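#lab-general

N.A. 3:47 PM
ok so I finally got the sequence cleaned up, no stray characters, all 415 residues accounted for. can someone with queue access submit it? mine expired

B.Y. 3:52 PM
send it over

N.A. 3:53 PM
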Amino acid sequence: MAGKAGRGADIRPKDEHQLAEIVAWALSSECRLAVVGGGSKRFGGRPMQCDYTLNLSALSGVTLYEPEELVLSAHAATPLDEIEALLAENRQQLAFEPANLGALLASGKRRAGTLGGMLATNLSGPRRIKAGSARDHFLGFRAVSGRGEIFKSGGRVVKNVTGYDMCKGLAGSWGTLAVMSLVTLKVLPAAESSATLVVRGLDNAAAVRVMSEVMQGSCDVSGAAHLPAVLAARSSIREVAATDAAATVFRLEGIAASVAYRADRLGESAKRHGVVAVLEDASSRKLWQDVRDVRLLAVPRERQIWRLSVPPSTGAAVMSEIARQVAECEGYFDWAGGLLWLAIPPVDDAHAGIIRAAVARSTGHATLIRAVAGVRAEVDVFQPQAGPVAALTRRIKAGFDPRGILNPGRMYADV
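B.Y. 4:20 PM
back already:
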């Protein structure tokens, strides 16, 4: 099996037991494995030097779906497109709105990735401000550790944790701790209707203030983002692009009557801040897909992309500080100002010093999402960790993967 494959080749387990055998063989042979599901995020994180690619594409398919119980289990390499299509048939959804970064990372291909990859990276979309992150909906899993051992954690209900909550640990670990074979998630009913209120002409600072005000109101907004004028002009939504003005957008979801009522209330309140337009259901959904998937920054492809998480009240100041020092910097705000997506011209250090200094003053963190391999090898892709936290990270890695054979160095050079 593994021994017959040439170095650098794909090894494709057919089931969980074969997966465990392969990892155990790699452990005994001291071979390093690059873990891949659908490949949509293959060019994210630090570049790795691995002996083989552990391709999980055969571990696919839904094993349990109970719409009445709001729970779904599936093999880790099940494409997200299939999951979302199945849920849509029952008017349900993954409420945290997983981002599809295929257009950003996978050579321009809009592959949605897999269920396991989505949880391993914990990348959540605009609805995070209301529904929480991917890890908040992660109920349980089966996986193979770097010791070659099959283990499981969690179950099929939310209140099922005794001892360590390993779902929280694996979410966002980028495949460095274990290889998930089966995952279970909570699903929720999908909204009957959606509308988006567009406020035109606000600068960044004013937009953040208005988003904060709206989020503290009673209109139950499920998305709040701000597109500066240069990015609003690229939108495929005519009502957003036509005026050459910045667009601050608020999404309302629910039953149609409730959405209409809240849109009227929010529209009356927002008029004092700028010209207001309303996007109906189809346009609203398309706009938020573009925001979620960072499509407005996807090209030109040579530009480097940063993802910054900051306290919402500091978002405009962080953006302004970076823009003063980095020429041709473009970006927009999601999560009511708490998430910044930035695109910058390519440079050898990705302006990491400037960006991290600005973020540090806001107590946030920054991740280099897209850059060529040489830059990602030299620059800290993920937020550098303080000494005690870095030591804890190494101990956790050693507990799950003592020889460091799973995605070695993908997050940090020595982990």
